[in-house]
What we know:
- Helices cover 67% and strands 6% of the residues.
- By secondary structure, the chain is mostly helical.
- A two-stranded parallel ribbon has the order 1-2.
Amino acid sequence: MDTNVLARYFVAEDEADAATERQRRAARDLIESGQPLFLAKTVALELETVLRGYYGFPVEQVLQVFDHLLAHPGVSAEDRPALEQAVADALHHASC
């Protein structure tokens, strides 16, 4: 998966144009297709940057996105233990 696909899946834009809506439907179809999907570490890092930096997601909402991704039965993540630890560390930091 790439960052743009994931952003389209997780970000609902109120005034999205037709092209954005088509991309959003395509992202949903892919992610909900049941086929195996791979999440690279670089994509995870970029997704966090896009969600917080561009879309203004608060940390808690970014963590929900990653919880959803990591719980998805079709998603395998590169260096999953490190990604799970990073999410846990971020959750701990955000709650302090």
